């Protein structure tokens, strides 16, 4: 089968061939080409040793112990930027055929040895769909990857136990590929994961986090989390979530805590919300099993928002999430229960909420609340009162139209015009504000001082009348803004 390789890759393979070496595109890029998907990354494998690769590509870089040389393609555009719908390649990882020997830490090989044959190199890879190579003319597929691709199966190369014993992270990569590609995990591969799930404890938390985030950011994250539970892996990632399985709720919910959390995550994925919102949706009720009192429709979960925020911090710190992400997600969990009823909550309380969660995070907090509603079985994601809340948040977050917006203040006026404190200062500032509202470009100190000198020549009564007219116009502008804002959120 012929697959079309980018010209940059074909040129690299050609240079190897001209120097007398085999070379192939390999791994995920071949898998994606066969799926009709544009690869995001390209890897090349060759029979040439690292020092020989560097002779062919003098501008290459070799700084590791695994036989990988970084080769430039000659394209100086940033890697993976897009032009005419396809990636523009800048650097390619070129690896010598190799075999990997004993894995003492279940992640890194104790020794890497160069191999003479492509088949030996493909035999060390994780899954059959990632163990294919191509020279642009033919597909080399000694382990049946094309057949598994056709049947949508994730299957290890050779013995599943051997592959997972070599690198336990592969047990997490299997469900990640399954949800990203919409595939099933082959039966023996799945059984080996269930049997050896505890090996995941040997893996660095950062690597577990990265795979978990890829699952969360996939189009089917709920399937991924459910698959992690079925395979016995979730207990080594976020065991706290498992506490919600089978835990009933009250009259406000029709699903168990576990199902509710997954349904909330599912809605976040359907709406293509970002990572923080998805994780917050998954964790927002994580503390309910620990705070539950009573059974049946009147059971309570007092304080589960605060307890949940502390649990979220523990979970995310354990998985080595960056501090800023941990703090944001914890805040989204902490304040997801904010109370709001039209006519009952004051603008001051809305300001306090905005201040607590941060203006930049308010929209994400509302998204988590919507996910919570949908996850509870409520058919309407955004009822009137939530739309009204959006309107009020925008209102309290918007700077009021006032003289504070001006580039000068009363002190500057008094100093510049040698004026004494009094009503005249206020009148002048209000007239200046009217000028700036008509033309925002005029909000410059020099212009305003000069304009103030002109106004200072008028009598106090004349200035008072001008200021009152300016104030009336300002109120009209404010009312227009309010009308537009209300229409935006369909509120009255």
TrEMBL record:
GO MF entries: metal ion binding; nucleotide binding; poly(A) RNA polymerase activity; tRNA binding
Source taxon at top rank: Bacteria
Keyword match Methyltransferase: no
EC number, UniProt record: 2.7.7.19
InterPro entries, per database record: Bact_CCA-adding_enz_type3_sf (IPR050264), HD/PDEase_dom (IPR003607), HD_domain (IPR006674), HDIG_dom (IPR006675), NT_sf (IPR043519), PolA_pol_head_dom (IPR002646), PolyA_RNA-bd (IPR032828)
Known cofactor(s): Mg(2+)
Keywords: Coiled coil, Magnesium, Metal-binding, Nucleotide-binding, Nucleotidyltransferase, RNA-binding, Transferase, tRNA processing
Pfam family, one: PolyA_pol_RNAbd
Transmembrane helix found in the keyword field: no
One record GO biological process: tRNA processing
SUPFAM superfamilies: Nucleotidyltransferase, Poly A polymerase C-terminal region-like
Domain (HD) ranges: 257-371
Coiled-coil annotated spans: 445-487
Family: Belongs to the tRNA nucleotidyltransferase/poly(A) polymerase family.
Protein's UniProt name: PolyA polymerase family protein, poly(A) polymerase
């Amino acid at each position: 089968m012929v697959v079309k390789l980018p010209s940059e890759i074909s040129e690299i393979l050609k240079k190897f061939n001209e120097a007398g070496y085999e070379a192939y595109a390999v791994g995920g890029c071949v898998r994606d080409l066969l799926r009709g998907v544009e690869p995001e990354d390209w890897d090349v494998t060759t029979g040439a040793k690292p020092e020989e690769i560097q002779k062919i590509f003098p501008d290459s870089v070799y700084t590791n112990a695994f036989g990988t040389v970084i080769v430039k393609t000659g394209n100086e555009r940033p890697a993976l930027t897009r032009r005419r719908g396809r990636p523009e390649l800048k650097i390619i990882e070129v690896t010598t055929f190799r075999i990997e020997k004993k894995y003492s830490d279940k992640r890194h090989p104790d020794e890497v040895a160069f191999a003479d044959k492509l088949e030996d190199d493909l035999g060390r890879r994780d899954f059959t769909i990632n163990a294919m190579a191509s020279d642009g003319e033919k597909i080399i597929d000694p382990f049946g990857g094309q057949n598994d691709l056709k049947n949508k199966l994730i299957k290890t190369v050779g013995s599943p136990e051997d592959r997972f014993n070599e690198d336990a992270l592969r047990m997490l990569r299997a469900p990640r590929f399954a949800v990203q590609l919409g595939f099933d995990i082959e039966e023996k591969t799945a059984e080996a994961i269930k049997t050896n799930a505890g090996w995941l404890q040997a893996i660095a938390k950062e690597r577990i986090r990265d795979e978990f985030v890829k699952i969360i950011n996939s189009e089917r994250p709920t399937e991924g989390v459910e698959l992690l539970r079925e395979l016995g892996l979730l207990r080594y990632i976020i065991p706290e979530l498992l506490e919600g399985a089978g835990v009933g709720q009250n009259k406000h919910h029709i699903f168990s805590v576990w199902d509710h959390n997954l349904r909330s995550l599912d809605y976040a994925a359907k709406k293509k919300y970002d990572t923080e919102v998805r994780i917050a949706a998954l964790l927002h009720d994580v503390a309910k099993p620990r705070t539950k009192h009573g059974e049946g429709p009147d059971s309570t979960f007092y304080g589960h928002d605060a307890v949940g925020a502390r649990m979220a911090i523990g979970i995310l710190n354990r998985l080595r999430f960056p501090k800023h992400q941990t703090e944001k997600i914890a805040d989204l969990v902490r304040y997801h229960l904010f109370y709001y009823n039209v006519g009952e909550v004051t603008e001051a309380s809305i300001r306090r909420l905005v201040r607590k969660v941060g203006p930049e995070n308010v929209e994400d907090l509302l998204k988590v609340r919507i996910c919570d509603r949908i996850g509870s079985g409520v058919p309407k994601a955004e009822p009137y009162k939530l739309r009204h809340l959006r309107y009020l948040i925008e209102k309290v977050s918007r700077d009021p139209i006032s003289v504070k917006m001006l580039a000068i203040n009363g002190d500057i006026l008094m100093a510049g015009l040698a004026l004494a404190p009094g009503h005249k200062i206020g009148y002048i500032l209000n007239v200046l504000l009217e000028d700036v509202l008509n033309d925002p470009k005029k909000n410059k100190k020099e212009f305003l001082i000069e304009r103030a000198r002109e106004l200072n020549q008028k009598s106090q009564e004349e200035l008072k009348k001008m200021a009152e007219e300016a104030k009336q116009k300002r109120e009209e502008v404010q009312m227009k803004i309010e009308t537009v804002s209300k229409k935006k959120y369909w509120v009255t």
